[in-house]
Amino acid sequence: MWIRICGQACAPLLLMGGCLHLAKPTQRGACTNLFLFFGWFRQAELGPNGYRFARKSDDFFRYANLQVIYGYLQIGEIVTDPKEIAKYHWHPHASQKYLENHANTLYLPAEYLSWDPQRTGYGTLDYRPDRVLTMENKGRATWKEKPFLMPEHVYGNRKNSAKGAGIYYAGVWQELVFVESDGLFEWAKSIID
After folding, report:
1. What's the pTM value of the predicted model, to 2 decimals?
2. What does residue 131 show for φ and ψ, rounded to 5 degrees?
């Protein structure tokens, strides 16, 4: 199994966002591919002149800028043929700029989740504390420490740049790829359930 975290190109619904991409081999050699989409959120409240950001309080998660998982997509089909991708003309990857790139790929959702056929293969998620990636009392991009998201599981040359506790991958990045580790897929499934 591996996990890929990619930037806003994966999550066009939000200005700031990304996704966690997991691929878990199954017994038949296929893959269970899953994207978990996350974005930058801050709680708002209704004031006398309309909505405003929540004011600072004793509850960090009520007023802070947070990175929160808000959606999922299990991949049902991977499309790489430029002629097939062009049929999805409304998608950014169907633009001429991307169609000329040999690595251009379009991911289409599965009809239902492989482990839960009662749930569609894609959707949005309500706010829940376990879907918050941001570590309490840290900046939005410093995540809670999860063993499977630590640098020793990152593919390539990345280091944790957090000051003290937490996980922080510095720089402007489009994606991070994590190698298989215990608990990764189970955690992702629990985020959706």
Report:
1. 0.80
2. -95, -5
